[in-house]
Design goal:
Layout lengths: L14 H4 L7 H16 L8 E2 L12 E2 L4 H15 L7 H20 L3 H15 L1 H6 L12 H13 L3 H19 L15 H6 L7
Antiparallel strand pairs: 1-2
Helix pairs in contact: 2-5, 3-7, 3-8, 4-8, 7-8
């Protein structure tokens, strides 16, 4: 299993409000926009998940999702074991709770992003959640709840090593927000002997500092 960690890209906190998070070309932006509209018409969840026993492994349902949809939650539940790897607890219930908490912090962090970056991430998530583009673009044949860690890891590796900038940037977005949401939470540091998040990661995504 490969643990995916995003290297710093020299993008400071202020630039997240001024520049494209995915840094897509005009063609890439138009493609994502078209996919997002089609995904909504095709039945993908479009509203934030709200208050649910969400990630149903949580002890309570006090957290209210403000950005992630139920489809997005399924997406991250599939990707986190591949992105975080052995940093997650081995004990199944502890692992589920750690993932649920991380997904809540991902939601809270994205909620603090500016509208432009939220829009791009929504389009990225829609591309991955919409069945047609999940299969043809991401080459993931099963719905995310049925995807194995090995399949999720293979998807991430394809996008990491792709010659298409949109896929590279999508990989960076998925891994960066996941790593910061997980490692930025102090109680998770001992799970991997991790001393704390690197300063570049905290500075590049300050929205996650108090998420």
């Amino acid at each position: 299993m490969t643990t995916h960690f995003s290297a710093p890209q020299g993008q400071g906190p202020a630039s997240l409000d001024r520049r494209s998070f995915l840094r897509t070309s005009l063609g890439g932006a138009l493609f994502l926009s078209t996919v997002s509209v089609t995904a909504g018409l095709g039945g993908c969840a479009t509203a934030p998940a709200g208050r649910l026993g969400a990630v149903e492994t949580r002890m309570d349902a006090r957290y209210q999702f403000q950005f992630l949809t139920t489809d997005d939650i399924d997406l991250f539940e599939a990707l986190l074991p591949a992105i975080l790897g052995p940093a997650l607890p081995e004990q199944p219930n502890a692992k589920r709770i750690a993932m649920a908490s991380t997904i809540e912090r991902i939601d809270a962090g994205i909620h603090k992003f500016g509208p432009a970056n939220q829009k791009e991430l929504r389009q990225l998530f829609d591309l991955l959640n919409f069945g047609f583009t999940r299969i043809t673009i991401a080459r993931v044949w099963s719905s995310w709840p049925k995807v194995t860690t090995e399949q999720a890891n293979a998807f991430l590796e394809r996008w990491r090593s792709s010659g298409i900038g949109l896929f590279n940037n999508g990989y960076m977005a998925l891994t960066k927000i996941s790593n910061v949401a997980f490692y930025g939470y102090q109680e998770n540091w001992p799970l991997s002997g991790y001393p704390g998040p690197p300063e570049w990661a905290v500075k590049s995504l300050p929205q996650f500092r108090n998420a």
